[in-house]
């Protein structure tokens, strides 16, 4: 029996989003969507978090930050890419400063489509991520080695 | 300490985290409802802590976790002591020691956020500690037996019902029996065997309960005058409870301590880390120092900090109970719940203030409400 | 000036129904115009590729010869330009939002073998 | 004591939903200096004008920022329309104004929540966002999107608001306006809030002008400057006056925005009253040639769109000067010799939109 499913704490980082998905992630925490019903708390602190929610595409300066945040999170952890920019780079894919989706830097577990992703879609995505989190927790419990920290190729 | 009290202390050690977790669960649901949302399940705090135990931790310095163990041990120790009816002063200092360890733990990783959190926690201690001590003194003056008048010249007052020694809080029927021998016998509750059985109900009521001994009062059969000195000056929780209940102080206890009680409510907001004063760390990490004190802790250590807070909260609620201890237990319980509700309401109706404001406000409250109440007890309520 | 201006609202919250929509358990009534996800109806499509032309993020790829319509939902910004461009009404906006995926499905949608080899009489604008 | 510490504030920080990085040089808890570094969300959006055609650029322009998205789309379209000399039908203008005022309400309520969160008033944050959801519902009902409206196109509006929807919208807005008072009264009158905002981050009118402040920031310092009075769209048809406060502190900036919420309610009512049935858009053909500066009033202040067309379907140059960019110098000016606890409050009262600023 794992408690990860009942108490997932998330950390939100705006990689280079237009704020649209950002404010929808925040809206999930507020009365109308209230994800605290599932025990989800926005910790704002990588050391407390289980789920890394990233909005927006990755560019050169944020890449380091994302890696830093991800590596500071203790295991087990999952990554949810919210919005099309976080998934593929979206409409900004072609610009000179965008490297692409979050998966160019980190292993992404769940992609949430939408521009901007709706709070309902984000809730669905996080709920889906919980299953993955639990599998990872079970693997760790069974004695699997901790996955190595993700290194950025400079 | 007799076995009954020892047992309650041990039970409290086990029960406090459970109750504290439930209290936190209620707190989160109520807070959510006040904010117009549904909120988490009642057992959410337990889920959180169990999850944290499963999670891997990251620690920056080796001492970090050791300090937290000390924090939890001291807090639990303080809680145990309190519910074992032991010395209130010791409880307060053990609690403070726990707090100091938490601060040390937060200092040790050397991260800027947790350092600022630790500094703020120290400022918070600076703000609430005087009032906490005044509260202890107030309780002591009113119900901690008494700083009796010198045996040679007891002041005598006609309460209308019977002649009572003034130093005894009004309505303290225990002392009625003693009034026969007012000049020579102490103001301490007189064991049944020593008393002229003029007021048999009271005497029996007192003698029948084992609380005289539990409270460390002169054992039945010993001449009261001999042990008077140690019985008189006593900070024990058991004594306070005994005097308040057996003495039937009722509302008068709260009335006599009204200033101190209000002041205590004020600092309770700091201690419970509620909104106007949740400077060093708060339940939600939306603030300038992220999570302040707890920023650098993770996994098991964070879970232990949470458990430590549960202990602390139950201890504080027990402290609040002391103010109501003269009342019927059901009334007292309802009042304690009301106090907690009030704290949640205040949490949800105020912004976080700055530390300067906090220290200033806490000290003004301490001076105005606490000290004046104390002076009143010293000079007018002897 | 006053202390606790919000306490009345807070107290009212304790005794009234919360504003929360319990989403996964109770979905709210759909709003008709809501832009949730592009729906493709393969029966009507003539593979004219007008939608591909109008799509700002180039999420739609149409192979006119092979009669393949492909849309990448992880690129689609839900602007609805393709729906407006579509002359045959084979594209429409679904009010329901898209589902989360654990894997990227790059070209995730329909492939259609030509049912009638009448050539591409696509209605070009 | 006196030892300096540097607090890294951002790019990931719970009080900042957006990545801006400030190195706060502290002496104890006093901020001696704040060194901002930006560039975390630069995407290179303006350059996309070379790859997307002018009609697609309207969607791209909306994604400059998700909070004031509608104004971005509208500003871009206004500029292009001026270059191409397109006359937008009256109803199209009114619809645009209704949506832009709705987005102002949504933006200000959102900001109010974030500010409340900045000074640790969680309930106020929740209550503000609870009300904001109601305006978002109206936006979704009329445009189909919650934060990205996608309703502005070159030549007018992509959607119309039916009369029955409009009637419902006005009714809901009236009830929302009534409910807003509980929140705004708290912002204006609660003493714990006043303790955190009054006298904090004061900026004098002269400084505000000299440092180039715009929008509510400038109006809070007593300068009546509102780009809506320049007369884009059909704002000259409506009666309103710029909202001005004198104190120039965080409280005054809050007051300006709070009063603007009610002003926007009023403007929407005026628009609805003046609107007549008719077409909402005109057909656009051809490519722009020439250049234009469009100045609009965003929730955050004056925003400028520069477009330069060369007769092809792609723009030669597209440039946006956003209000937050103009408000950063006054912010850095205010962030000196204050408490660390005041930093989030001051940063938030400029209503930073980093995503606009860096695009």
Describe the structure using short key phrases.
heterotetramer; B: 382 residues; mainly alpha; 2 domains; two-stranded antiparallel sheet; 15 helices; 2% strand; globular; C: 125 residues; alpha+beta; Alpha-Beta Plaits; two-stranded antiparallel ribbon; 3 helices; 15% helix; elongated
Structure description:
The complex is a heterotetramer of chains A (154), B (382), C (125) and D (359). Chain B is mostly helical and 382 residues long. Chain B folds into two domains: 3-144 and 253-379, no CATH class; 156-234, no CATH class. Chain B contains 15 helices and two strands. Chain B has a two-stranded antiparallel ribbon with strand order 1-2. Chain C is α+β, with helices and mostly antiparallel strands. Chain C is 15% helix and 13% strand. Chain C has a two-stranded antiparallel sheet with strand order 1-4. The longest helix of chain C has 9 residues, at 7-15. Chain D has one domain (44-358): Cytochrome-c3 Hydrogenase, chain B (Orthogonal Bundle), CATH 1.10.645. Chain D is 47% helix and 15% strand. Chain D has twelve helices and nine strands. In chain D, the strands form three sheets. In chain D, strands 1-2-3-9 form a four-stranded antiparallel beta sheet, with no helix packed on it. In chain D, strand 7 and strand 8 form a beta hairpin. Chains in contact: A-B, A-C, A-D, B-C, B-D, C-D.
Q: Into which percent range does the helicity of residues of chain D fall?
A: 40-55%
Measured by DSSP, the beta-strand proportion of chain C falls in: 5-15%
CATH class of the domain at 30-94 in chain C: Alpha Beta
CATH architecture level-2 label of chain D: Orthogonal Bundle
Average pLDDT across residues of chain C? 75
The arrangement of helices and strands of chain D along the chain is EEEHHHHEEHHHHHEEEHEHH
Q: How much helix is in the residues of chain C?
A: 10-25%
SSE pattern of chain C, N- to C-terminal? HEHEEHE
CATH classification class of chain D: Mainly Alpha
Low-pLDDT sequence parts of chain C: 117-125
- Average residue pLDDT of chain D: 85
Write out the strand line-up for the largest beta sheet of chain C, numbering strands in chain order. 1-4
Report the major sheet of chain C.
2 strands, antiparallel
Q: Biggest protein-protein interface? A: A-D, 41 and 41 residues
Q: What's the helix and strand layout?
A:
The complex is a heterotetramer of chains A (154), B (382), C (125) and D (359).
Chain B: H1 3-34, H2 44-54, H3 62-83, H4 88-107, H5 112-143, E1 156-158, E2 163-165, H6 174-178, H7 200-208, H8 211-214, H9 224-232, H10 237-246, H11 251-256, H12 258-271, H13 299-324, H14 329-347, H15 355-379
Antiparallel strand pairs in B: 1-2
Chain C: H1 7-15, E1 37-40, H2 50-54, E2 60-63, E3 68-71, H3 81-85, E4 91-94
Antiparallel strand pairs in C: 1-4, 2-3
Chain D: E1 4-9, E2 21-27, E3 30-37, H1 54-62, H2 69-84, H3 90-118, H4 122-143, E4 152-153, E5 156-157, H5 163-189, H6 191-197, H7 205-210, H8 216-219, H9 250-274, E6 289-298, E7 301-310, E8 315-321, H10 323-334, E9 338-339, H11 342-349, H12 354-358
Antiparallel strand pairs in D: 1-2, 2-3, 3-9, 4-5, 6-7, 7-8
Helix pairs in contact in D: 1-2, 2-3, 3-4, 3-9, 3-11, 4-5, 5-9
């Amino acid at each position: 029996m794992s408690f990860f499913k009942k108490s997932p704490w998330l950390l939100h980082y705006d990689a280079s989003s237009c704020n649209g998905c950002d404010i929808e992630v925040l809206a999930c925490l507020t009365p109308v969507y209230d994800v605290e019903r599932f025990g989800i708390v926005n910790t704002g602190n990588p050391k407390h978090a289980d789920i890394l929610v990233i909005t927006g595409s990755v560019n050169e300066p944020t890449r380091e930050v994302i890696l830093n945040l991800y590596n500071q999170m203790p295991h087990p952890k999952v990554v949810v890419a919210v919005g099309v920019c976080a998934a593929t780079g979206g409409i900004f894919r072609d610009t000179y400063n965008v490297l692409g989706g979050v998966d160019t830097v980190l292993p992404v577990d769940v992609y949430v489509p939408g521009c901007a992703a709706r709070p309902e879609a984000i809730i669905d995505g996080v709920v889906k991520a919980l299953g993955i989190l639990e599998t990872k927790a079970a693997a760790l419990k069974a004695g699997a080695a901790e996955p190595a920290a993700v290194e950025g190729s400079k | 300490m007799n076995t009954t009290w020892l047992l309650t202390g041990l039970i409290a050690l086990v029960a406090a985290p459970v109750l504290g977790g439930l209290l936190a669960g209620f707190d989160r649901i109520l807070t959510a409802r006040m904010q117009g949302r549904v909120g988490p399940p009642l057992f959410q705090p337990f889920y959180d802590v169990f999850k944290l135990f499963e999670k891997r931790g990251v620690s920056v310095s080796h001492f970090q976790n050791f300090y937290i163990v000390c924090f939890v041990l001291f807090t639990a120790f303080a809680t145990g002591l309190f519910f074992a009816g032991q010395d209130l002063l010791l409880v307060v200092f053990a609690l403070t020691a726990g707090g100091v360890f938490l601060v040390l733990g937060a200092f040790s990783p050397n991260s800027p956020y947790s350092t600022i959190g630790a500094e703020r926690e120290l400022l918070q201690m600076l703000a609430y500690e005087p009032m906490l001590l005044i509260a202890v003194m107030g309780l002591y003056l009113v119900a901690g037996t008494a700083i009796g008048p010198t045996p040679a010249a007891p002041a005598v007052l006609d309460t209308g019902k019977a002649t009572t020694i003034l130093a005894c809080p009004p309505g303290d029927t225990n002392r009625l029996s003693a009034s026969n021998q007012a000049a020579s016998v102490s103001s301490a509750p007189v064991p049944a065997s020593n008393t002229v059985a003029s007021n048999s109900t009271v005497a029996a009521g007192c003698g029948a309960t084992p609380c005289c001994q539990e409270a460390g009062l002169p054992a039945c059969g010993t001449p009261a005058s001999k042990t008077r000195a140690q019985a008189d000056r006593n900070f024990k929780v058991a004594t306070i409870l005994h005097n308040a209940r057996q003495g039937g102080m009722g509302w008068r206890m709260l009335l006599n301590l009204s200033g101190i009680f209000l002041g205590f409510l004020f600092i309770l907001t700091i201690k419970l880390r509620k909104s106007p004063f949740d400077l060093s760390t708060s339940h939600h990490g939306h603030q300038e120092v992220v999570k302040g004190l707890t920023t650098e802790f993770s996994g098991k250590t964070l879970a232990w900090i949470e458990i430590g807070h549960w202990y602390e909260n139950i201890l504080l609620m027990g402290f609040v109970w002391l103010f109501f201890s003269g009342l019927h237990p059901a009334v007292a319980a309802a009042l304690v719940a009301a106090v907690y509700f009030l704290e949640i309401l205040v949490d949800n109706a105020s912004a976080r203030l700055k530390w300067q404001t906090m220290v200033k406000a806490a000290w003004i409250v301490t001076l105005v409400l606490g000290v004046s109440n104390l002076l009143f007890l010293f000079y007018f309520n002897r | 000036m006053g202390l606790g201006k919000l306490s009345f609202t807070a107290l009212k919250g304790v005794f009234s129904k919360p504003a929360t929509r319990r989403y996964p358990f109770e979905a709210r009534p759909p709003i008709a115009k809501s832009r949730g996800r592009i729906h493709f109806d393969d029966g009507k499509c003539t593979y004219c590729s007008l939608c591909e032309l109008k799509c700002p993020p180039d999420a739609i790829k149409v192979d006119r010869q092979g009669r393949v319509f492909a849309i990448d939902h992880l690129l689609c910004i839900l602007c609805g330009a393709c729906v407006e461009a579509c002359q045959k009404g084979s594209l429409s906006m679904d009010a329901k939002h898209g589902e989360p995926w654990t894997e990227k499905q790059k070209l995730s949608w329909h492939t259609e073998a030509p049912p009638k080899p009448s050539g591409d009489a696509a209605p070009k604008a | 004591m006196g030892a300096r510490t540097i607090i890294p504030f951002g790019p990931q920080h719970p009080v900042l939903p957006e990545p801006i990085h400030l190195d706060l040089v502290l002496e104890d808890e006093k901020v001696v200096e704040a060194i901002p570094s930006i560039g975390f969300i630069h995407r290179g959006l303006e350059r996309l004008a070379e790859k997307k055609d002018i009609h697609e650029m309207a969607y791209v322009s909306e994604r400059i920022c998700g909070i004031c998205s509608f104004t971005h789309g509208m500003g871009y379209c206004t500029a292009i329309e001026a270059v191409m000399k397109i006359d937008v039908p009256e109803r199209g203008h009114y619809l645009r104004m209704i949506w832009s005022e709705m987005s102002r309400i949504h933006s200000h309520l959102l900001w109010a929540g974030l500010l409340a969160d900045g000074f640790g008033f969680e309930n106020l944050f929740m209550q503000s966002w609870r009300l904001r959801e109601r305006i978002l519902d109206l936006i979704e009902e009329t445009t189909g999107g919650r934060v990205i409206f996608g309703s502005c196109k070159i030549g007018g509006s992509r959607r119309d608001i039916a009369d029955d929807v409009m009637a419902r919208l006005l009714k809901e807005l009236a009830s929302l306006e009534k409910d807003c008072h509980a929140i705004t009264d708290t912002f204006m009158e609660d003493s714990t809030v006043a303790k955190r905002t009054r006298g904090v981050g004061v900026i004098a009118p002269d400084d505000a002008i000299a440092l180039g402040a715009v929008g509510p920031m400038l109006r809070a310092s007593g300068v009546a400057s509102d780009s809506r009075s320049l007369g884009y769209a059909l704002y000259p048809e409506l009666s309103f006056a710029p909202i001005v406060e004198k104190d120039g502190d965080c409280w005054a900036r809050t007051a300006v925005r709070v009063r603007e919420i009610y002003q926007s309610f009023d403007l929407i009512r005026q628009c609805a009253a003046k609107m007549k049935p008719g077409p909402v858009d005109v057909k656009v053909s051809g490519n722009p040639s020439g250049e234009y500066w469009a100045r609009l009033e965003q929730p955050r202040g004056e925003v400028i769109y520069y477009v330069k067309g060369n007769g092809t379907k792609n723009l030669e140059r597209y440039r946006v000067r956003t209000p937050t960019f103009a408000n950063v110098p006054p912010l850095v000016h205010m962030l000196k010799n204050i408490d660390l606890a005041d930093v989030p409050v001051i940063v938030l009262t400029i209503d930073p939109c980093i995503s606009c600023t860096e695009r």
